[in-house]
Design brief:
Number of helices: 14
Strand content: 15-25%
Helix content: 25-40%
Distance between the termini: 50 Å
Strand order of the largest sheet: 3-2-12-11-8-9
Shape: globular
Structural class: alpha+beta
Largest sheet: 6 strands, antiparallel
Oligomer: single chain
Length: about 450
Amino acid sequence: MMAELDATVGSRNRVNVRGGRIRLGDDSTWFEIGQDPVIVGRNPACQVVVEDGKVSAVHAEFIATEDGVRVRDLGSRNGTFVADVRVGEICVSSKCQLRLGGTKVEFQPLRPEKISVPPLPTFGPLVGQSETMRKIFDRMSKIASTDLTLLITGETGTGKELAAKAVHLGSSRKDKAFVVVDCGSIPPTLAEATLFGHERGAFTGAVDKQTSPFHEADGGTLFLDELGELPIDVQPKLLRALSERRVKSVGGSTYRPFDTRVIAATRRDLVRDVNNGSFRSDLYFRVAQVKVELPALRHRSEDVPILVRSMLRELGDDSTYERVSNQTLERLMRYDWPGNVRELRNVVEVGFALSDPDEELDIASHLGALDGGFPTSQRGGGGPPSVDYSSRPFQEAKREVLDHFARSYFLRLAEESKGNVSEIARRAGMERAHVRTYLKRHDIDVKQYR
């Protein structure tokens, strides 16, 4: 299995990227679309600025891929249209006309460009042989040598903190502190004091002086996890700190400078939050000087074997991997991994701990009864019912298992969150609108848990 993956990687060191160019209305200026995202909107910080009241501050994103230019609407108010059809995300590879708000956008494809994909299977503590991850490793290795502010996005469990640590270890600041602040766990009333520090007696409960994490990480890196959860009233103060490179503690009278590289992460779609007013656009563009999006594990299943090997090496030694059969790896690669790499690590740790050193290491047995099943920890209502699915079509059987999982999963979250949809969305790593869709689909009334 690993030899086959190595051969595949070696043969995919060059790929064709299909870019294009766009222009607005009758304007003669063309904007080229390459591998770096091009954001179109009214905000002056966008790469392409549109002076149209019907266009949102941050409206749509264009980026070149192997399949063509991917156009993604960023939660705009008046929508993105292709041939008068409103789209959320689409790949365009031939000449066409789009509409953003009230502005017509002409698109023309360019000749495919052959690019090299660096053969980097690791970057610091991160591992992955897929083309997607090797591109990310190459990008992060270049980012690491700079002091640019980095925003890492991705679903819960994709390894955002590990990626931030990898960038820190690849930088000239690697011998200094790496300080983590989880913005999602800070009470709103203490957000300012937690970020910037406070003096003794500055407020009720401030019995001791607290140093700002910007100064704790001086010379090193400050990682702001779940930045999207930061209260709106604290956001302008964070923007000032990042812009002026100095902070003043709560209750203090003077500003103190800092020399700290800032990396932020979020599972939220901050661009949509900018458009709905819950996140400041100026802070977004200040934090996202460079942006890296970590893919879900289900979108890079070819990385599962090398991840399993790396995890087992951390738990024991390389020889442990030899006890994992190809059949087990194939089952793991077919699984959807809603909890991403974090869930895979949990399953590997359980399998390793319960295995006999002289027997096959069957990690997949800790998933559900079917290849489409779920780990016991995620089953909610006891897992898929004990039914013989062998006489049913695969898609029908899989759909029933997935429906049972979804209902059990959201029932448990509704109970634990006392019917608070925002809290359910936070725990599930999803947008509230998507959560409400699942709740309605599975006839779950959250009011009964309040």
